[in-house]
Amino acid sequence: MYRGKYNRIAGFYELLERPLDRFFNPLRGRAVSLARGRTLEIGVGTGKTLRYYPPDIELYAVDGSEKMLEIAKKRAKELGIDVKFRVAEAESLPFPNDYFDTVISSFVFCTVPNPKRAMGEIKRVLKPGGRAIFLEHTRSKSRLVDYLFLLPMKLILKPLLDDDPLRETHELVREYFEVEKEERHYSGVVRLIVAKNDKD
After folding, report:
1. Which residue ranges form the domains of the chain, and what is each CATH number?
2. Where's the Methyltransferase type domain (predicted)?
3. pTM reported for the whole predicted model
């Protein structure tokens, strides 16, 4: 189960990700800058996104790993920002229906055990007209990129973190929301998707 794996590596998780930060942190900043109103971040991890949030939002954050969340709490305190943290799975969010104006997921759906259930939970807690923002690893548009880059990544990350970078999260988003904007980065290996909750 991913929770135990992330709890074990929490102390050096950021060291593992550091080589990718120069590519991903600008995208994290762009994604969370779009947050408005009462906002939930799913899978906040160690809180690498926290410094990018606008100052005028009401921020909630959940993660399935207690150890990762402890680091995120320390980071929020250092940044001087108020965040309401909860230990929770993306597939079972402890919030009422139609509660958030914005829900953000940053490099999470490659790890979520049940992506469809998690997407349904995002839709449930998001207000009608609210926005879901996804910054996710996805299968690219190039078979060569998938074969030479993503497949080797999966072979390493799946046993270590239950991480599958070959998921088609961008297609799953369309089943639940109306996509307003999609940006493809690095041949579609990473996508930033802004979607509106206006479907029944």
Report:
1. 2-196 (3.40.50.150)
2. 40-134
3. 0.85
